[in-house]
Amino acid sequence: MSRRGVAILGATGSIGTSALRVIARHPDQFRVVALTAHANREALDQLVTAHHPVFAGLSGSAGGGDVLLAAATHPDVDIVLNAVVGAAGLAATLAALDAGKRVALANKESLVVGGQLVLEAARRGGGELVPVDSEHSAILQALGSAPTSSVRRLVLTASGGPFRASSAAEVVTATVGQTLRHPTWSMGRKITVDSATLANKALEVIEAHFLFGLPFDAIDVVVHPQSIVHSFVEFVDGSMLAQLGVPSMELPILYAFTHPERSTDVGIPRLDPVAMGSLTFEAVRHDVFPMLSIGVGAARRGGAGAAVFNAANEVAVGHFLDGRITFGGIPEVVGETVDTLGSLAGGTRQELLDADARARAHVEGLVRC
Ligand code: NAD
Ligand code: MG
């Protein structure tokens, strides 16, 4: 089979870097066709020298808006790895699916903001949506060819983040330094904060809802501090299947490229059940981590609810990282914004973009006063 061409949107990030390692181990199967970065020209230049893509561009430069779309729809590209952070990834996901590409989706915000539009684009263009998120990759693998009607519920695992065992008082006053020290995963700053607040798990419940076509009532979350079991599927007969692996994104990235086939890989450490020791599970402390229920509650409203939650969270996380609000301020401003704007209409792309913009402006207003 000829080598499949890959575009990596957000190539300088955590997922982008992992993906380039995966591709470098499989030069017979994949070739880098397009790379984008947002602002760091020097880092992008280094990647161009190392990987010789046909196309490379900075999405944050003047006129950079078209860079993501050009990479996502390039004729030599078969697989688009969307590893951009935030709602900024939506347009490229839609364009790639419309162009009939396989989208290996790390940018979960695409599905959170525009889930219905993304599914429609895939149907229209014949593109294929394959998750990179480790939980959703686990579910995809555990499901196999089982029909949705045979599934009772999905159980997403969450590491619990750095404050899993902290008191409520410690959590609301957590510093940026403490928040960025994730116990099991090394990731970009925004998702690391989202993992600490559990906003990330809200985004993932919404992502699972659209990917697997199950109602929110059939998607649960359990805390699993070792991050070895990447999620469970419970079938109607009570049987549960899980997928296990070391906490490395290289495995779900590779699987998103090869699904439903598998490829041998020598770069990812193998899992030794004896060395793994004990695997533990505990309930989510919703009172200490309200972002999970705020996010899922927003999505249950339908319309632009999830888009409003996502936009408010993106802006709040930025202000937390810049020291303008506290850790406890994140659920405060996001919850207030969802209460105020969560019922906005979101049937069209324009309505979703308007709701996103209004939510961002609303948080800015709250932070300023
Ligand atoms: P990161 O911050 O390390 O990298 C983000 C990349 O996107 C960089 O290349 C950056 O230049 C680019 N970028 C930033 N802002 C952009 C914008 N406005 N437009 C276009 N490009 C932009 O982030 P990451 O940890 O690699 O995460 C990327 C995505 O993958 C996120 O949606 C995240 O939720 C998801 N994800 C990450 C992990 C992980 O382990 N890091 C796991 C699961 C899902
Ligand atoms: Mg995940």
What do you see in this structure?
The chain is α/β, with parallel strands linked by helices. The chain folds into two domains: 4-131, NAD(P)-binding Rossmann-like Domain (Rossmann fold, 3-Layer(aba) Sandwich), CATH 3.40.50.720; 145-228 and 282-368, Rna Polymerase Sigma Factor, Chain: A, CATH 1.10.1740. It is 47% helix and 15% strand. It has 16 helices and ten strands. The protein has helices spanning 14-24, 41-51, 65-73, 90-98, 109-125, 134-143, 168-172, 176-179, 189-197, 199-212, 250-258, 273-276, 291-300, 305-321, 329-341, 349-368, and strands at residues 4-9, 30-37, 55-58, 79-82, 102-105, 128-131, 151-158, 219-223, 229-235, 240-244. Strands 3-2-1-4-5-6 form a six-stranded parallel β-sheet, with helices on both faces. The protein has a four-stranded mixed β-sheet with strand order 8-7-9-10, covered by helices on one side. A hairpin with a 4-residue loop joins strand 9 (229-235) and strand 10. The longest helix has 20 residues, at 349-368. It is globular, with a radius of gyration of 20 Å. The protein starts with a strand and ends with a helix. The mean pLDDT is 97. The structure holds nicotinamide-adenine-dinucleotide (NAD) and magnesium ion (MG). Residues 133-135, 204 line the site of magnesium ion. Magnesium ion binds at residues 133-135, 204.
